[in-house]
Amino acid sequence: MNTRTGPRTRTGATAADIQAHYDIGKEFYALWLDPGLTYSCALWDGITGPPGNTDLLAKAQHAKLRYHLEQAGVTAGGRLLDIGCGWGSLLRTATEEVGVRQAFGLTLSADQYAHVRSLGLSGADVEVQDWRDHEPAEPYDGIVSIGAFEHFTHQDMSRDERIGAYRAFFARCAGWLPPLGRLSLQTIALTDHAAHDTSVPDFFAREIFPGSGLPCLSEIATACEPYFTISRLREDGADYARTLRGWSSRLFRARKEAELLVGADAYLRYRTYLRASEIVFMRQASTLYRITLRRRSERRGPGGSSGGQAFPQ
Ligand SMILES: C[S@@+](CC[C@H](N)C(=O)[O-])C[C@H]1O[C@@H](n2cnc3c(N)ncnc32)[C@H](O)[C@@H]1O
Q1: What is the rounded distance in angstroms from the CA atom of residue 257 to the CA atom of residue 305?
Q2: Would you state the pLDDT for residue 2?
Q3: Hey, CA dihedral for 168, 169, 175, 180, is it positive or negative?
Q4: Which residue, among 177, 180, 111, has the nearest Cα to 144 in the 3D structure?
Q5: 3-class SS of residue 191
């Protein structure tokens, strides 16, 4: 049970759980994230130099955003859903650079919602809404979800419960896409659930990400099977270690300002979390997947047969 937010009545992080982490204040995150406030693993292909450097971090985050937009197959004039839109960096890139006609972002954070609204992006909209409650008027051409999947189950769920929760997510995404439409998903995962020492995940669940928990790859593959084929998979755990090193060094440099904004205890908690996460990725106990999923033309039934069933909307 999570002691901060009371007993769980549902799967994954609640809005209160999310706000406990993300609504500590945009000004605090701005001290150590890149200027676009992207809060997920960057893509460092071909980028060398210190990861705490603002320009390099921004470049690697931008490369990641462009990668996912390309993988989702969303082009100029298209419609995009961003599940877990954070402070809006993907929405901005999609509308201002790619020319996406409508980009819709979902977040559970009031602070992120206010920030995205304040950007005044033409063609972009945002809602404080759980994906479970999302009911779009028309389908999307592509879906991106970066760094949100980690919040869709919580630490105490069994493997079967996790697969059920992830399957519900994939079912909804499939219902919002045309046949062969693509979902580009980025998530942290445990490399081996059974063998994993739970002390670090327990610390994260208790102190940093209440109500959340990590998948492993076999759960994602099993859960998506009736709805999607995996058409591309990148394992980029080293990229996350590098991103975390960049964030850590930036936060360390901004210690005085950070302590003024959030207090010495919160500063120390975040420093510890960023450094511990970096070590977890370096030891390969966790990794980072970028997964491109292509919607099947019809839903698969039990045993892999083509069930000919409709997708849920
Ligand atoms: C680590 S942030 C990543 C934000 C952004 N994608 C980025 O890369 O900067 C996770 C995001 O997922 C959102 N989120 C978590 N659970 C959600 C849910 N059930 N429905 C919608 N958004 C959710 C949070 O509100 C937050 O915006």
Answers
A1: 58
A2: 31
A3: negative
A4: 177
A5: coil
Distances in whole angstroms, Cα of residue 248 to Cα of each of 19, 33, 97, 292: 22, 10, 29, 29
Angle at 149 between CA 134 and CA 155, to 5 degrees: 115
Q: CB-side exposure of 46: number of CA atoms within 13 Å?
A: 3
Cα 145 to ligand 1 centroid, rounded to whole Å: 8
Task: Indicate the pTM of the whole model.
Answer: 0.93
Ligand 1 binding pocket mutation candidate from 106, 111, 150, 208 (most atoms within 8 A of CB): 106
Q: Is the CB of 105 under 6 A from ligand 1?
A: no
Separation of alpha carbons 161 and 165, rounded Å:
6
User: DSSP 3-state assignment of 10?
Assistant: coil
Residue 206 confidence (pLDDT) above 80: no
Measured CA to CA, the distance from residue 125 to residue 113 in angstroms comes to 10
* Domains annotated on the chain, with CATH: 21-297 (3.40.50.150)
**Taking the CB of residue 192, how many other CB atoms lie within 10 A of it?**
9
What's the rounded Cα separation, in Å, for the pair 272 and 298? 46
Pick the atom of ligand 1 nearest to 82's CA.
6
